[in-house]
Amino acid sequence: MGKIEWAMWANEQALASGLILLTGGIVGVAGQFRGWQFAAYAVAAGVFVCLLEYPRSKRSKGTSVERTGQYCFTVCVKTFGPLTRNYYVRAFLHAAICVPGGFMLATVLGCVCLGIASLIYLAAAIRGEHWEPILPRKAETRKPPESIKKPPQNPPPRPPPEMRKKRVDDLEGAAYDNPIDVTANE
Amino acid sequence: MGNWIINNGLTSFILVVWMGINTFLFVWFYLFYDLGDQFFYTRHLLGSALAWARAPAAVLNFNCLLILLPVCRNLLSLLRGSFMCCGRTMRKQLDKNLSFHKLVAYMIALMTAVHMIAHLLNVEWYNNSRQGVYDTLSTALSNLEDTDNTTYLNPIRTTDLDPQQIPTYFAFTTIAGLTGVIITLALILIITSSMEVIRRSYFEVFWYTHHLFIIFFAGLVFHGAGRIVRSQQKTDPPHNTTFCKDHPEDWGRIPECPIPQFAGGFPQTWMWVIGPMVLYVCERLLRFIRYMQTVRYRKIVMRPSKVLELQLVKNGFKMEVGQYVFINCPAISQLEWHPFTMTSAPEEDFFSIHIRSAGDWTDKLIDIMQKLPEGAQGPKMGVDGPFGTASEDVFDYEVSMLVGAGIGVTPFASILKSIWYKFKESNPKLRTRKIYFYWLCRETHAFEWFADLLQVLEKEMEERGMGDFLTYKLYLTGWDQVHADHVKVRFDQDTDVVTGLKQKTHYGRPIWDKEFEQVRKENPTSVVGTFLCGPEALAKVLEKKCAKYSDVDPRKTKFYFNKENF
Lengths: 186, 566
What we know:
The complex is a heterodimer of chains A (186) and B (566). Chain A is an all-alpha fold and 186 residues long. Chain A has helices spanning 6-30, 36-53, 71-78, 82-85, 87-98, 105-126, 161-164, 171-174. In chain A, helix 1 (6-30) packs antiparallel against helix 2 and helix 1 (6-30) runs antiparallel to helix 6 (105-126). The longest helix of chain A is centred in the N-terminal third of the chain and has 25 residues, at 6-30. Chain A starts with 5 loop residues before the first helix and ends in a 12-residue tail after the last helix. Chain B is elongated. In chain B, 48% of the residues lie in helices and 15% in strands. Chain B has helices spanning 2-35, 40-46, 49-67, 73-82, 88-93, 97-131, 136-143, 166-173, 175-193, 196-201, 203-210, 213-222, 241-244, 269-292, 360-370, 410-424, 448-463, 481-489, 512-522, 536-549; strands spanning 230-233, 261-264, 295-303, 307-314, 324-328, 338-341, 351-356, 382-387, 399-405, 434-441, 470-476, 506-507, 527-533, 558-563. In chain B, the strands form four sheets. Chain B has a six-stranded parallel sheet with strand order 12-11-10-9-13-14, with helices on both faces. Chain B has a three-stranded antiparallel sheet with strand order 3-4-7, covered by helices on one side. In chain B, helix 17 links the parallel strand 10 (434-441) and strand 11 (470-476). Chain B starts with a helix and ends with a strand. Chain B is an alpha/beta fold. In chain B, helix 6 crosses helix 7, helix 8 (166-173) packs across helix 9 and helix 9 (175-193) runs antiparallel to helix 12. Classes of the chains: A mainly alpha (186), B alpha/beta (566). The interface between A and B is medium-sized, with 33 and 32 residues.
């Protein structure tokens, strides 16, 4: 089990808890239960947890699978910087959020589930994991190197025309040394 | 359309039957609790919420019965064996067991949600009745206690706690409430750890957490033991509800209205789930017994590209073509079982698997095997199986077109070997006279062993003068400039530069029109069976081509498409 990133499971659990908290809250408010104020809180808390947990983190190893349409949520969550990056903060935040849910039966299940998610986040934080946003990669454009764009400015080195004429009668004397070195650049 | 019915008809039928039973149970129990006279007073306290809680409970009973069955793979194998007479379509349904398991799980989750919400309402309204918030009848009903001559209706008896906390207190101090909370929690943990993301990346978390189902079933069986769903019993003289409901203060004082008596229903869930629970225990026992059976290594071979071939021998092991086994190696992990398609033919006296490096379990296994001294036995292995629908239809066609894409080529190793063995023994079951094999892959890495197999077959066939029994074509769909250059340089060599085979490698995807034309030209009067193990998109293409190139005239070529889920 060495390669597990606990945060991934904590994320699924927290998202599920958010939904359960929300559902319990809606039932409590709609049914006008005793302590419906706690249910109203649970609705707000449930929505908040869902929004916070919807964007998945980028995995440290392997491919990350985004949730549909999570980009806008990623941007929002990213703006809180270290508050959302650090999993200790999340663990304590979830632990704190879940407490008022325990005061009413309709929200108790959401409270316990969120508490469990908080524990898993704590485990993730202890192992040094943190939240990374999944951002679309900018396509790298390769510019061709500068040197191949410009055509040569100078003609190749040649001796003057009268020396270039072929002198068939005196081949020995026709040989010459190039005034400019034509060997490869060292 | 006809093809869809043949391929998916039975599955759809089973799903319709399953939904039908669910709907029937829901409606039946809903009406039972919503219309039954014995629940008249209960309905006065709770309205329809009781029926809304009991109806999903019935559906839950049924689905909790079903959920254990598709994962008893040995039981399914047994069924498959005894279905040999009933046709392949029946047996193919058994291969979709995991999909069914997930579907039933979704239904359980949905019904749990409905059941829980209905009971939240019930508990709240029971509490209000007990507090005397509603009319006199409700208060009178709630006041009934368990004494010498009265029985209670309202399961909430406490009044001396903070009224807001009584529901929570009730939930955690009654058997039904406590077991309900525990098993719902277990269910939620099971579901969150079974999400595809977690399952594919950290199988151990999924597998270990899934064992919470033991707590789930234990709690489920005891969930009804408290008998808090109360129905009205017959009294002597009878209690006339229509009249007495308006005179609660006269109960016990006038002859028409003796005090109404209530009793809880007998818990029934255990009757539904005990059968599958026993079957599942037997299944785990059987897996354990199979695991303890000795598996001997006949040969261990390291193939190129980190592929390990294991040839194993096990007493009483019988396989068919295209089946798979589960392998467990306690030296690496006590609890992990991994599936591998077998690559040997049933005619051989051993079975072989080719294991590719694809994760930490396979990596460790390959590592252990590489460090073994020459000729030594490997670590202890447990083998469970074989599982899977055998693909025996392959032998029934005179001409077969076999298409294997990527890793889908593995079952064809088994099939090709078996065909060749049957041909050599002149097995009458084999009607095949000609095989066209199309191998599509992005690159041949990790499949060199298959190329070796083709080479061996190629050689044997040439020796017997049967060179045209097997025609195979390899299509490399992931070629690049390096490949192209390689090929250009070695164009005139006899064997292929990539595979070493006599038949040259093609680059890019096959042009199916050309292939089907060629097959039709070379076999003008035969029935051709097309078999695919590969992606869905390719299945659609091949299906269309089969239809296009089949001739209505029975004397001419006909193509039949079989998509196998090996």
